[in-house]
Design goal:
about 475 residues; alpha/beta; 5-stranded parallel β-sheet; about 15% strand
Length: about 475
């Protein structure tokens, strides 16, 4: 029996929320009062009913992903022949097609995974997520790879993402030049919509191997589909445990009363601080370097879901809140000064790990110097934990509200919980803000102008609009 199949182990691995330092009892006037949370209960009840109806009707299919375990068998089947020879697995994608896999890879694999000998990583390939087309960065990442042992996973839900298609054109041509066209075809997996889009048409025409993105699952909610699961399976992540963690969180949320529901309470805190306390910025600050990629994934999930011009009634509201990445303890020495003495416009969310894999003792050396003596006999683990506690306490002392999400440890089960929790929190917050958390109309304009300027047929209007715009003024340029 695997650990996550033991209910006692699963309960010990449960993610928890501590929002003491967000409440007026401990932070004073800058915190929330219990009655403010209680007053939100009727609105949360309405959101709950809407989400329940959406789940039953199939309008919110991301809810079902943790239960679709057939995807694990599909991915294992597709990956098996690649694992026999592949040393370098390259993901071409951007946004939701890249951030989930990167977050899981960073959290659940050795920090030096891509540099370890094959034996030390259990004969799993290195995983490279190429999510930017900046030429020097893109070329530099490709430059050091072993092209004889390289496989490519092209990921785009729409199949028309310009950056991803451009990456594919360059990499596929280079791969053909090194291994020949027949072998290049065998080294390609396309993950896209099951029926439509340019990549689906290309795959049908050329006979490329494909995996599907469920049509109603948006990119930023796709981490539990082939989009996120295939890359990290290649790197050795236990997909069964990951999905079990997501199911555990989903069932816990479904069985919770409103006051004990992590997602509802977290969404309520974020919403009330943004709207009632004029704190529209949420700093997400993991005290674990392995969770830095998760913070980046959270920022995209939150920003694209909640930053909206119009509400569900079509009224212009220009609402949302801004999630900001930080990292403990690194950013105690770069950002904390702003958070503790700057404007009262931020709510800090710490991600705390209770137990790390390694215990690193500090030897009692150079004890004739006070600055060394007090450290000797302790451990890096102690210092790290105390710094997080000290930071949270001093924020509280300065009247700066903060809360802590605790993970017993970082493993696939807790990561599944955490990612599902943030997805659920986001859609609940969408209900509170009164916006559609599943669309992203604001990014379409930039795409359309890009298509026009690059000469894509059907987008000439956007090129003309760009060319007709008022020119920049020389008086505002300094050379």
């Amino acid at each position: 029996m695997k650990p996550y199949q033991d209910p006692a182990w699963s309960d010990r691995m449960a993610v928890s929320l501590d929002y003491n330092y967000a409440m007026a009892d401990l932070v004073g006037d800058h915190g929330l009062r219990e009655e403010e949370l209680e007053a939100l209960a009727p609105r949360l009840a309405k959101v709950h009913q809407d989400l329940k109806a959406g789940r039953q009707s199939g309008c919110l299919p991301f809810f079902d992903l943790p239960y679709q375990t057939d995807i694990i068998r599909t991915i294992s089947r597709v990956a098996k022949p690649f694992l026999e020879w592949c040393w370098e697995f390259v993901v071409l994608g951007i946004g939701g097609s890249a951030l989930g896999a990167r977050a899981l890879h960073q959290a659940l694999c050795h920090p030096q995974h891509n540099r370890l000998p094959l034996g030390r990583k259990h004969h799993r390939p290195s995983l490279w997520v190429l999510d930017n087309i900046e030429p020097d960065y893109f070329y530099g990442l490709l430059d050091g790879l072993d092209w004889r042992r390289l496989a490519i996973n092209v990921i785009s839900k729409s199949g028309s993402t310009a950056e991803t298609l451009a990456q594919f054109l360059f990499v596929y041509q280079a791969l053909k030049g090194r291994v020949g066209e027949d072998k290049a075809r065998e080294r390609l997996i396309i993950t896209t919509d099951p029926e439509k889009g340019p990549l689906r048409k290309l795959a049908a025409q050329e006979g490329f191997l494909t995996l599907e993105v469920p049509p109603k699952v948006g990119g930023r909610f796709s981490v539990f589909t082939a989009v996120g699961l295939l890359p990290v399976h290649m790197a050795g992540v236990d997909l069964e445990e990951l999905l079990a963690g997501a199911r555990f969180m989903d069932q816990r949320l479904q069985n919770s009363q409103p006051n004990d529901n992590l997602a509802y309470r977290l969404a309520a805190l974020y919403y009330l601080f943004a709207t009632g306390q004029n704190r529209p910025m949420v700093v997400i600050m993991p005290y674990a370097s392995s969770l830095a990629g998760l913070a980046e994934w959270c920022c995209q999930l939150w920003a694209e879901s909640l930053g909206k011009k119009v509400d569900l009634q079509g009224r212009v509201v220009e609402t949302g809140s801004t999630m900001i990445r930080a990292l403990g303890v690194t950013d105690q020495h770069s950002q904390l000064q702003l958070y503790i003495e700057g404007p009262h416009d931020k709510l800090i969310t710490f991600l705390e790990v209770e137990k790390f894999q390694h215990h690193l003792p500090l030897p009692p050396l150079f004890d004739y110097l006070e600055e060394f003596r007090y450290l000797g006999g302790h451990s890096l683990n102690e210092l790290f934990k105390i710094e997080q506690e000290a930071t949270a306490f001093n924020l509280r002392r300065a009247g700066r509200p903060n809360l802590t999400i605790r993970l017993p440890e970082v493993n696939p089960f807790t990561m599944g919980q955490l990612m599902f929790l943030f997805e659920m929190t986001t859609v609940v917050a969408g209900g509170l803000f009164g916006v559609n958390p599943l669309d992203q109309p604001g990014v379409e304009g930039g795409k359309q102008t890009t298509y026009g300027l690059m000469g894509r047929p059907g987008y000439e209007h956007f090129r003309r609009e760009f060319n007709a715009a008022a020119p920049k003024l020389a008086k505002y340029i300094i050379k």
